[in-house]
Amino acid sequence: xxxxxxxxxxxxxxxxxxxxxxxxxxxxxxxxxxxxxxxxxxxxxxxxxxxxxxxxxxxxxxxxxxxxxxxxxxxxxxxxxxxxxxxxxxxxxxxxxxxxxxxxxxxxxxxxxxxxxxxxxx
Length: 122
Hints:
Elements: H1 10-25, H2 33-47, H3 55-66, H4 71-86, H5 90-98, H6 108-121
Helix pairs in contact: 1-2, 2-4, 2-6, 3-4
C-alpha cells in the first residue's frame, strides 16, 4: 500500500498531498495507525468508489492485507482516530468541510464516504 516516491505518478503524489493536508487540517495525528489507514482508505475510495459500498467486506480486508494486520484492527484504529477527532475542537472543522452538522459521531463508513466525496467534489 505504500507508494514509492520514484514510481508514483504526479496524480498520485498530488492526491497524497491533498489527503495529508486534509487529515492534518482535521488534526488527526500521523502518530496514530488510524491516520495511515484512513489516508490509504481515502485513496482507495477516491480511485474506486465501489469500496464505499463494501467497507467491511472490501475496504478493511484490502487495507489489512496491505499492512499485514487484521480487518478488525484496521476498523478499530480508524474508529479510534475518528473518536479523537470527534472529542476535540477539530470536530467543527470536519463539520464545516463536509457540510454535515450532526451531533452524533459518524460511523467509520460515513466518515470515509463524506471525506471521499469532499475530496472528489471540491
